[in-house]
Structures are given as structure tokens and as C-alpha cells.
Amino acid sequence: MTAEDVRPETELELETAGPEKISLPDAPEDLRAELDAGRAIAWSEPVPIRTYEPGKPSQYPMYLDKRVYQGSSGKVYPIPFTEKIEDTPKTNAWEAVHLENAFVRVMVLPELGGRIHIGYDKTTGYDFFYRNNVIKPALVGLAGPWISGGVEFNWPQHHRPATYLPVETSIENGEDGSVTVWCYDHDPFARMSAQHGIRLHADSSIVELVVRVHNRTSERQTFLWWSNVAARVHDDYQSFFPEDVRYVADHARRALTAFPEADRPYYNVDYPALAAEQPGADRIDYYRNIPVPTSYMIVDSQEDFFGGYDHAAGAGFVHWAERRVSPGKKQWTWGNAPFGHAWDDQLTDGDGPYVELMAGVYTDNQPDFAWLLPGETKVFSQYWYPIPATGPAHAATPDAAVNVERGDDLVATFAVTSPRNGARIRVLEGDVVVADRVVDMRPSVPATIGVPQAAGRSFMVELRDESGRELVSWSPIEVSDEEPWVADEPPAPDAIDSVEELYLTGLHLSQYRHPTRSPLPYWEEALLRDAGDARVNTAMADRLYRAGRYDEARTHVEAAIARLSRRNANPTDAEAYYLSGLIEMRLGNVEAAEQAFGKAGWDGTWSAGAGIELARSLARRGCNRAALRVLDSLDSVAGYDARRPALRAIVLRRLGMIAEADAVLRDALDVDRLDATLRYLAGSVLGDDAGMLVDVALDLAKAGETESSVEMYRAAALVPLGGSGNFGPIAYYLAAHTLESAGFTTRAAEARSAAQREDRAWAFPAGLDALDALASAIAADPTDAVAHHLLGMLYYDCSRRREASAHWDRAIELGLADPVLYRNAGLAAYNVLGDDAVAWARYNEAVRLAPGDARLRYEQDQLAKRVGRSAGERLAALRPSEELVLTRDDFAIEYVGLLIAEGFGEEAYAILTSRSFHPWEGGEGQAIDAWDAALEATGREIVDPPRTLGEARAAYVPPAAVREDGVTDYFATSLPELLLFDREDTGKNA
């Protein structure tokens, strides 16, 4: 018996008809001649796509730093959080940029993070990237909406914070006949910038990704980069990795298994037992054999390629990137079982399942974060190309791939990425050529060579071009079967022997953004044992500085410098001096800051970052020629930093050297064509990303360009509200701070007044510049309730939660009647003050101000549960607002539970069978539990749920995120609880 037998006539039915295939437009008439001549072309043209719109983001800031997300913190603030997807699609005309050459077509969607949505092999008619013919987001992304298909470019953490936000684009035509579509965005968290260029070459089937990631901030930052390729799968789709891959690892290397035959239980699936019943069922390189959501990342390959192959279609793709920077190779699947198929339904209307074949740069696992120094730019490329009728690649380069079948006979099949007339294929046994062939090759047609009766013999195969240059070669690989290391949970601080290990453990937790373990206990234990340890004091100073605790940070950095310089005035690492300069500058001690930056500049690691900070300070003080001398000393020895030419152009213009400034900008834009500050200085029109405009204004202010910066702040304030939030209020407060610092007191007061009048919806300030501006506003006018409210939000985000609560209470005392304010104050009253009565009163007032806000009512009910209200009391409070309750999935499930608990099982059953649900990734199971409880309460047989419930039963129990003692597992990768209500230790909260 299934759910079909018990469905009432009133049940909502999902649409089963798939959407029409996305129609790619023909190249414009003016570009066809170039295409016919063998060049690559690109153009912008909207494409209509069936689309399910995400709902409006919540107006409440979400403090989810303890949410487990992809193994690291699910912190989403200051991005607005979206929790709803519409059930009814409509056709949207999506901005699209199209790239085409003789062999492939690519479609890029700038409004969705600049992702590749289509990768199509014109020669075989095969979509080598998964073509999702509908835009159907599910609640998978860091901030909510996420779509499957194509290629998603994830940075600075997984499922990119800006994955559902727009990017700016520019088309560049190369002199070599190539074309590149550049996409530019600012990380909405740390405000780093990234440019990724999607490039087609003339006469080549390669899709090249050219990336520039730039830490445009003054602080060292962590990041990762994973290109997330989707491939349409079925029983005959195979993911292939290099032949030296003997093991694969789960997230954080918490578990291993052999590859391609799994030799042990993995994700609680006993693959050896399955293979004993059905030979081949342990082959986890085939989608068909994986019944549960599963990740695996390769361990320790020395090769540069991997990919996927569709045996039914006789086509596939290769990814290639230099292993020295791109070691990461991963597969993810929802699993070939009803549970995974239900997720497929959430993400497409008929295009079926997919796997993700991800390629990591500067990372080989998730989470696995690398560092970017202040001002540092990293540049790298990744390559994909389709392969026709070769089978999985056993060796690959950007020029060619080869599959080598080894049975009684040896057969090698080659595919090339560009035409190769007179190519030579050879098979060698030792130094002896045993087979040789010359052939004209094209990307669409493979070429083969064979050796009969080859069993037991050792061969090398190779493909060379007509000049003799090797394009690809293969020979047998011998690799040790020694099992790689597996990660373990760090011991408690008091169980660790050395101060060094305490420091490094805390550093790991900080670098990897661990969601449930803080570095502070480790560093605090280290300082108990050695109060002067330079490494730990520097780490503590950095953490306190980032929270705006400048005086405390200075105490620690002074202790670090004292230890470092006790016997050596010139330590090997000057990070403490650099950090001292940042702290002193924030405290207004300009002379001390400049001295510290000067000292930090003696160390090559910190010379570039210290140099730009020193040059900015000098320029701000009007010492323009001194600023130029500092920049001159950096340009020939320090790595490229787009901030330097921007500052140089500003200073040159002040000195009347206009032509020289223009030349600097031209040269810089040849390198960084979409850098926002460079474009502004060059007179280009910037886009309507308010956060980017604020960043440009901050760059100008730090160079002493007061009027220009104020103009940019005002421009940012005028940008309509969008998915990245509302910068209006903070833009005016920043303008006021800049004006106040320049001595324009009256204008600063006017700017603060404008900030108070701005719409505060989705206004979630973040960062030290905003913190300083708000603190300055309150110092100038202690009765500024809006500044108190906003500063409280910022403080709560950076774990200054008792101070946040005080600011929110002060804003309430000053008469600010805002439901967001009262909700925030209620949250702090419960979590920080431990005062249930005040928390309840604050939420009641918030609900009074916004009675129709379902999110607010849901949180109030969650608070009711935590303060001990009975199910009957909660149900009675919600009954009059049932229609509002049922607008949210999580609220509806909670309400169903209350109905069942109070004996209203039929009502609960009716709700579950009359609306559609959309699960969060990692939150699966709650709707199933409610379904089973409703069936049991109404005396019905336990059956599978209807499709409208949005999920299906899991065939295997996944590893538990929460242990039996109630503590979140150290290696948990996903946990649905939002953890908004999480009563914490109210002592230290740095």
C-alpha cells in the first residue's frame, strides 16, 4: 500500500510534465562571419526560462554562526535570509551571455552568480554539463535559494554566499581569436572581490575558467574555491578519477573508503555486503550503486584531471587543472533511491538526477580553507572539455585525453581539443614501438590504436602533434596501498600537552570556521601556561581586533611584540607589528600606527599589506610625495594589489600629474578590467551593487578623498533594496563619520539625520568601518536610537552580545518602535541575559507591532516551547492565526505536532495532504516524522508520504549530527536547527 491509496481528492498535485528545453538563440548576424571564420564569439541576449521565484528574505537578521553547514559555520549575517520558494512557476526572461565557437556553446547567467548554466557539445549534440531546463531553487544555499545544473563557482566558502545574487559582466575579445566573459562580484561577508572569466578559444573545444581572487581588505582572510560541475546521470554514468586514486575521504577526512570499490561501510552503507549479493554493487564510481546522499573527495593524487563519462550516450567531459594549485576532486550525489529522487523533484521539473563533480583550488577537502594576505591576489585557471566516444579518461591534458582498455588486447582511444593534422599515435613496449599511426584528428572524432595479445605485457601509449610535441601519454601507475590518515577530534584543552599544540588547534578551529568548537578555550589555556607566548597573543589580538575590541587587542599585541623583540629586534615574522598598526589606526593613534606599519614592512610577507596602509595614511594626511615613495618601493617587489594603482592614481592627480594617473589606470584596468575602484577613478559607470559602492567609498575615504567618498556613499544609499541587503542607513552613517573626521561637523550631523530617516528593512551593518561609524554617531548623539539599534545588530554578530543587548534596550528606551528591534532584544534577553520574562515581553511587543509576520510568530512559538509553555497553551495561541501559521513549512510542521499532541490528528493529516513542503538540505526527516505521527494518530496504516511532502524515506540512517550526550558531533557536516535560541555562557564572549 502506498500514499496513492490514501490521498484525498483535495490534495495538491505536483506538475509532472517537464519544461520545454531551453532554446539557445542563434548568433547575431554581425557575429556570424567571425564564427564562420573560426573565431570564438560572445554576446548578451535574454533567454526565457520557466522559473520558480524565491520568496522575499526575512526582515530579521539571522545569527546562525553555530549552524553546521558543509562542515563549517553556517553564518549568514549580514546577508538577508530567504526561507520560501514559490510553488507556481512563471516564465522569466533571464539575462544571459552566450559564448560559441565551432565546437561548443556555453550560456552564462549573470543574475545567478555568473554560473555556467549550459555547456553543449555542438559536434555530438551532448550537454556535457547538466542542463536544467527550469530555474527551480531549493533551500540548499547558505542564504537559502540554490539551483542545480551547469557550473557553480563557490568562493570564499561552499555554496557561494552570492550564488543567488547578480554579478557584473564584461565581454573581452582576445587578439588570438578567443573571447572571455568576465564576471565580477564582492564577497558579501569579508568584502573581498573575485573575477572569473569564462573563455572560449578559437578552434578549440576547451572551456577555460580564468580566476582572480583578491583580498581587498586590510585583514588576512580565509577562503576556498570549488567549481561545482553538475552532470546528468543514470545507471550507466561513471565518475572517473586518476588511476593513482586508491582511497576517497568524507568531509574533513572523518572517514575513508577504497576507490572505486568501496571496501568498508561508508555513510552507513555496507558496500562489501551489497557486493556479496550483487557483484559490482560496491563500485561507487557509478551513480546507480550509491543509495544515500554521499560525498567523497580523492586522497593524494599526483594527477591533474578527472571527469565523468556517459556510457549510454558515448560522451563525457574532462576537468584539468594543475595539481600544484588544484588538488581537490570530489563527487557528491543525493543518492539513487527515493530519498534522493525526492530532492531531484525539488530541483527540476523533469531533467532527472545529477551528480556534482567538483574541482577544488587551494583546497582538497571540505571544509579546507586557505589564506589570503591583505591585498593578495591569486590567479589560476581551470579547464573543461567534452570527450566523444572514448570511455573514461585514464590520462588527460588540456590538449587531449586517452582511454586505455586492457584485456587480452590493448586498445587506446584518443580525443583532442583542437584539430591536429598529422598527429602520431604510438604504443611502446619499453623503447620498442609496437604500433604506430598517423592520423588527422578533430575534437568530435576519436582515434584508436591497438595491440593484440597484450595481456601480461607493459606498454606506454602516446599522442604527439606533427612537430613531435607530446599531447598526452599514458603508462601504468604503481601506487602504495598504504591507508591514508583520518582526522580525529582534538582533545580538550587541558588534555593537550604543549602550548604549541594548543595554539595550532585554536588556529585550525578559527581558520576552518568550525561551527561548534571555539578556539578561545585552547588559546586561553595556552596563556595560562605562558602568558607571553607571541603566537597565541597575536592570534588573540587578531580575534579581538576583528570584534572591535581595540584596547584589549592592543594589550595582547603588545605582549606578543615584547616576547618577539626581547632578544631580536627584527623577528622573522612581523605580523604582530602589522596588526599593531591596524589597531593603533582604529584607535586614532596615527603616528604609532605608521611606525608599526613601517616596521612590519621589513618582513617580505607583510611588506605589501603594511606598505599600502602606510601609503594610505600618508595620503590621507596630505603627504602625497611620501605616499608615492612608499608605493614606488612596493611596485617592483610586492605581488600585484589593485589597491596600489588606485591609490597611486589618486595621489598623482593631486600632484597635477593627470596624464601619468590616466596611464596608471589604463594599465591597471588591462589587468583588473572590472575592479570597481579602478573603474570609478577612470570615469566608468558602476553597477547598482550598493555594497560595492560602499567599498569604493571606503577606498576613497582611506585615501583622504572626502568629497568623492561622500558622493559614493550617497549613491549607495539610493540603490533599491536587493538580495544583498540594504546599505542605505549605514552608507549615511559612514558618510557622517568621514565628514566628522575631516572636520565638517554640520554636514556630519545632516548625514546622521539622513541615516535615521532611511528605510531599515534588511539593513544589517557589518565590518569594522561600520562599527566605528556607528560608535562615532552615538558619541556625537547618544539619543540616536537608530544607531543604537544598528550597532546592537553588529555587536551581536561579532559575539559582543551583552553589549548588543544594552544597545537594543537603549534604543527601546529612546522610543524606537520597530518589530526587528524588539525581536532582537527578545533574542538577547533569552540567550544572553537568561531572562525568560523579558524575552517573552519583548517578543509580545514585536508581535503587536507586526501581527501578520509569520517568521516572528514562529520564533515566538519556539520561545514558548523553551520557556515551558505546554502544547495546549501553544496550540490555543496559534489557533486564531492558523492561516498565517500555514504559510511557513517549519511553522506548519510544528503546528501539526501540536495538533497531534492535543488529539486533533485528522486536522494534522489534512494539513499534510493539502499543501506542498520544501525541505532544507540537512533538515530532512521532520516532515516524514510528522507524517508518520499523523497516520498513527488517525489509525491509518504507515505508508510512504505524498510527493507534496517534498521528501521520501531514507533507506539508511545517516551519521548522527548530534551525539547521545546532546553535543553536536565534531565532524558534523549539516544540522537543520537554526540555533537562534541557544542560551550561552554569559562570561567572556569575544
From TrEMBL:
Region listing for Disordered, in residue ranges: 1-26
Region forming the signal peptide: none
Protein name per Swiss-Prot or TrEMBL: DUF5107 domain-containing protein
Matches recorded under InterPro entries: DUF5107, TPR-like_helical_dom_sf
Residue ranges with Basic and acidic residues bias: 1-10
Gene3D superfamilies named in the record: Tetratricopeptide repeat domain
Domain (DUF5107) ranges: 75-387
Organism for this UniProt entry: Demequina litoralis
